[in-house]
Queue: 2 jobs
Job 1
Amino acid sequence: GRNWRSRIIYDTNLYASYNHGRYQQQKELADVLPYWEYEHNDSTHPRLQHVGWDGLVLRADDPWWDYHYPTRAYGCHCTVRALDDVDLKHSGKTVQQAPEIEWEEKLIGQRSGQPRIVRVPKGVDPSFEHPKRL
């Protein structure tokens, strides 16, 4: 229906708020749960980059998380799971090398009459590219 845009914004804000709270909790627990695993959750229109990051395990202090800890796009339902050494052993997972952060330029603001180009990491929507900070 007509309210699709409002629904996407509402859902995105809901997930972003939830993930921000998780981010704060996981940062505080990084001494005991020092690894984070990216988890892609199904969405209506999955992003290939997000699907590609599914299962990626990095140290919690890896700079990659500054630009990729969810929520990083409209409609994104991805999350991060905190792990310790026992979790890694039981799951058979290992800590990986962070993917290189690839940047791209995107044109935004065409409808407002004030178009401009912004630089964002691939897989991250404009306005979601700002580093996570506590």
Note: Strands lie at 35-39, 57-59, 79-83, 103-108, 116-121.
Job 2
Amino acid sequence: EHDADRLKAALMESPDVAVGAALDEITEQVDADIALLCTPPADRHDQIAAACRAGLAILAEKPLADTLAGAEAHVAAAAAAGVPIAVGLNFRYLAVTQELKKLFAPSRLGRPEFGRFTYERWRDGHQPHLNKYPLTMRQPMLWEQSIHHFDLMRFVYDAEPVSISARTFNPSWSMYEGDANVAALISFEGGIEVTYQGTWAGNWKQMGFEWRTECRHGIALQSEMFGDLAFAMREDVELSPVDLRDEEPWFDDVWGFLEDFVGHFRYGTALPCTGADHLKSLRMVEACIQASARGATVSLHEL
């Protein structure tokens, strides 16, 4: 927190919380197992280094860094120090995400072959509850939002990207210094092709979201970011809705992720959303940036 008044108010609400100007100061005051980094991605080098020195496992808000090279360095530092590092990609734990993935079983819709993902949002970056750094960062849509979408594609399709063609740009009314629009054609292994359009500068306050996937036996259609999932077989006249468990977005999905994260330390289960896995999604971001700059298709094997 850089606002002195807000920081003072927060400290008054929690007088027993250890505070310091750097993570090293905190680790000297408390007995901890994990460093939770809810800090801007551009300023984490010293925090990662301090956590590694203290032997703390690291859980970071996405993206891990605002450059691919920076994220790779963080993952390498954690590996060298022998500390686990994970990234909070909680959208994997949404009920709609879990059920969408199940639809692609051979006994249901079968293997995905192509899809269309659209995310059209007017994101007012000046709202008091939002972080302000995206207003001035390079490629804010890609680093802050598309990273979620790319991670979800990899997760539900259970496939890795092979190549990307992309164009990023900014409409005249955008409040962001960096490009708020992304259009991409993403080729995944196994021949899956996805057309992607994402924007933070959609010029209507009503959110537009649709993710349609064409499979061997029919289609899956997610029409809302946190729900409204349906499917249809080729000859069906109407869509069939998928029942989803009741949940509160941003809370139940985060809780599910944290249960898995803590379970790694308590029960030895697999660490969810590892830093190494996160790099695969960040390479998709980097591929979009390079493809737009070069006007060419970028192979993920180049990165």
Note: The chain has eight helices and twelve strands.
